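Weekly structure sync, notes
Attendees: PL, DS, HV (note-taker this week)

Item 1: DUF58 domain-containing protein
DS walked through the input record. Source organism listed as Solimonas fluminis. Sequence as pasted into the shared doc:
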Amino acid sequence: MRLWLVFKLLLHPIRFAQARIDAWVMARVKRQPGPIPVPRTRVYIVPTRFGYGYAFMGLVMLLGSMNYSNSMGFLLTFLLGALGLVCMHHTHGNLVNVQLRSGKTAPVFAGEVAHFEILVDNPAPAQRYSFSLAWPKETQPPVMADVPARGTATLRIALPAERRGWLPARVFSLSTEFPLGLFHAWTWAELDMACLVYPKPATAGRMPPSASGAIGQMPSNIAGQDEFAGLRNYHRGDPMKSVHWKSLPKSPGAPMVKQFTELLDQELWLEWDSLGDLDPESRLSQLTRWVLDMEDRQHAYGLRLPGIELKPGRGEIHQNDCLRELALYKPG
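Item 1 (cont.): predicted structure, written out as tokens:
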């Protein structure tokens, strides 16, 4: 193991040093519920490649000024050096004393992309510029935003959701290179937030066994205004608008009254045991598809899993409850 570390150090010294420093810093980042303040002791700053080029240019100008004893060259060299020091101060101060909070995270289905909402608070009376938010060592571009004075900026950072269940947020970096891009200042943080990932819905086509010929509505014996149920004899107190006037000439002296009944949804159960030909994850995917299909059809449905039963219902709340149980269910 030690020989392998020595080989990596000799082959890629800068990459090896960066990996060791990142590991040292990451081990000290704790998961917190927020808000997370960013004091001066948690802000790291290094020159960018433009900063190194700027410093090299200043060194060349200094050597040239010394070689030719050029006072104007000295003046310009020291002016650019002072400008670089002021830039370093502003880059560091642009990130100090902001606060990080967790925002809303909407559930997604497996195979989609989860978006974590992170709020950056600026308690200072001056605006902060050019903040970048990103996961460490990710190929996707960072999210950029400015934070108004005594205000809040909302940044949404994406993370692929590959499997169902809870997807915790990782350690992320908040960085800035304002104002001239000569220095890169950043801090690490990890907010206690997670995204609920629903099972990936199966392809449409298969119907629940109990739904064959049963999806729809059935008349009840409850009086209502939905379905015409026939005529009956007039009773004292019946409203005049319910009288069937067309039947009055056929039965003089005995008016008939239109009768209606209320339509009730037939209950449908989506059951784990009805999918015995599938493996556990495929069962959850198929049940997810059925939940979405029944909700689109506005049909009341219930969910039965081993040890879990949700009574029939419909609506966004009932759908979310069913999908949550499917996302967090542990077979066996």
